[in-house]
Write a structure and sequence with these properties.
By secondary structure, the chain is mainly β. It has two domains: 211 residues, no CATH class; 78 residues, Sandwich (Immunoglobulin-like), CATH 2.60.40. The protein is built from two helices and 23 strands. Strands 3, 4, 5, 6, 8, 9, 10, 11, 12 and 15 form a ten-stranded mixed β-sheet that branches. Strands 1, 2, 7, 13, 14 and 16 form a six-stranded mixed β-sheet that branches. It has a four-stranded antiparallel β-sheet with strand order 20-19-22-23, with no helix packed on it. The protein is globular, with a radius of gyration of 23 Å.
Length: 320
């Protein structure tokens, strides 16, 4: 009898151990469709050019949504300081969990209470919350900088902007669908982060300095909550993707770019206009799934996919 119970216990433990899965979150850093890099020209939704020389943010309080809506909280000590300028993507090990299929992940940008208001010198310098240079800690009352985004905008990139978002009231949670794949025995959950969206509706033309919990600093944090994260090749808001095409490189230091497309027939065409709305080119669809375009000068262009006389989709392209 004892041997039978022991055998049953060992089988049960084996089943539990085999069901555990190492899970890592992978954040792909983007400026629109290009890989993020410091000092790379980009354009926000207001059509304002800028370059980034600092971008850092905290991400914490993860919840994995899996197997038909089950929510499993990741231990609170899993917190990361993400620094896109140092890497094309960031890998955040979340731990080992009993999951089969992961649908989405929930997280917040910033540091949660009461940790947000503790002394950073309590942590080792190697810890994400330890002392940093430049500093990511604002003060004991206000806590950490949730996001620090700095750079230059305006004509010839002469206008400095500094946006530091913080504050316990601005610790916003969000949920994002993921692309999951097994890599070397680890389940990797991928999401994209498009940092041009972090500056949505923020005027960079004359420089802006906003350190705190309101104004442009708050807009920055709301943009991180509502616009930065997602998967570019997955339909948003449950709407079907109209087409599969991209313009690359974008941004580009060359006057020549390529349009790559799939499954488009001869009743489609591409129309290109400059920022003044002037027509630059009209391109008919070919059979080789790629077109090359020579643009006349540096600037911002809008590539529109048309079917007959109906606008399907427009993409912004920056030549610098």
């Amino acid at each position: 009898m004892k041997n039978s119970l022991l055998c049953a216990l060992l089988i049960s433990l084996a089943a539990v151990s085999w069901s555990q899965t190492d899970i890592t979150l992978k954040i792909n850093h983007r400026l629109d469709l290009a890989d993020f890099a410091l000092d790379m020209p980009a354009v926000n939704n207001l059509g304002q050019s800028y370059k980034t020389n600092r971008l850092e943010y905290y991400i914490s309080k993860f919840i994995i949504i899996h197997d038909g809506g089950i929510e499993t909280a990741v231990p609170l000590d899993v917190i990361a300081l993400v620094q896109p300028g140092e890497e094309v993507n960031t890998l955040i090990p979340l731990g080992n969990f009993d999951v089969t299929t992961v649908e989405s992940i929930q997280f917040a940008i910033g540091v949660y209470e009461p940790i947000n208001n503790e002394d950073p010198t309590l942590f080792d310098e190697s810890h994400p919350l330890g002392p940093k240079s430049p500093s990511m800690h604002w003060g004991w009352v206000a806590g950490y900088r949730f996001v620090a985004y700095e750079g230059f905008g305006g004509a010839d990139y002469t206008q400095n902007f500094q946006l530091h978002g913080l504050g316990n009231d601005n610790y916003f949670s969000q949920k994002q669908d993921v692309i999951a794949e097994v890599v070397g025995g680890t389940l990797v959950l991928s999401i994209d982060a498009n940092y041009t969206e972090a500056l949505r509706d923020i005027d960079l033309s004359s420089g802006v300095v906003s350190h705190g919990e309101t104004g442009a600093a708050l807009q920055l944090l709301l943009n991180f909550k509502n616009h930065v994260f997602g998967n570019y090749f997955v339909a948003l808001d449950d709407q079907p993707v109209q087409s599969s095409w991209l313009v690359y490189p974008n941004p580009s230091a060359s006057m020549e770019v390529a349009i790559n497309f799939q499954d488009l027939t001869s009743d489609y065409r591409f129309e290109i206009v400059n920022i003044l709305g002037e027509s630059v080119n009209v391109l008919q669809i070919t059979e080789n799934n790629m077109l090359r375009v020579q643009l006349p000068s540096q600037g911002i262009y809008f590539f529109s996919l048309m079917k007959n006389n109906t606008l399907i989709e427009t993409k912004k392209v920056v030549i610098y």
